[in-house]
Amino acid sequence: MNKGDLLMRKFSVALLALILAACTTLDPYSGEKKTSNAAKGAGVGAIAGAVVGAATSSKNDRKKGVLTGAVAGAALGGGVGVYMDNQEKALRDRLVGSGVQVRRDGDNIQLIMPGNITFATNRSDIRSDFHPVLDSVAEVLAEFKKTRIKVSGHTDNTGGADLNQRLSEDRAASVKNYLIGRGVASGRVNSIGYSYRYPIASNSTASGREANRRVELELEPIE
């Protein structure tokens, strides 16, 4: 390994460690240390940028090329992550105590809305006492315009397949239409019903069936 390659490796490792350490916070919900997705993206981008910078620089400008590439890569890699981190925080702040779960998977955010707080039994019109919660969600989604929203309806396996399919579609559509009516652009939102095809708990117990009756919102960044 030549000196240039060794320099690039040491610099990349040091920069990655610095970014991850700087962006590690205490999650108020779990009490665990958490590194933001923005930091992870920035770290990967910095290393990729450093590699490109080293490869495209002359021997005399190797140090400068590594640094310039790393900075540019970090900015690019962390951009989407920063945006989704901010959106996630806004949603968590608004939804504390609402019963809606907020989950993060990479650059995607998932909101899980239990059916028992969203709809009356076998109904697809949204309960009036849940309107303030959806209003809060809509406000955040209207502010963060660079995300697509997929609304999916899910049921338990009680009753016929046709009934459950229709109910899951109607509930998803109700949430979609509510969000649009509160200022979320219609082109960003689509809805789909999955009936009981994707359970998250066992349908053999009452608590499991209750968990399976839900509406989910999946938010993904628009590239």
What topology does this entry show?
Elements (H helix, E strand, L loop, with lengths): L2 H20 L1 E3 L6 E3 L1 H19 L6 H34 L5 E5 L2 E7 H4 L12 H13 L3 E8 L6 H21 L7 E5 L12 H7 L1 E8 L2
Parallel strand pairs: 5-6
Antiparallel strand pairs: 1-2, 3-4, 4-7, 5-7
Helix pairs in contact: 1-2, 1-3, 2-3, 3-5, 5-6
Structure class: alpha+beta
**What fraction of the residues are assigned to beta strands by DSSP?**
15-25%
Low-confidence stretches: 28-32
SS summary, helix count = 7
Shape estimate = elongated
Instruction: Going across the biggest sheet, name each strand in turn.
Output: 3-4-7-5-6
End-to-end separation: 38 Å
Features:
7 strands, single chain, 223 residues, two-stranded antiparallel sheet, elongated, 17% strand, five-stranded mixed sheet, alpha+beta
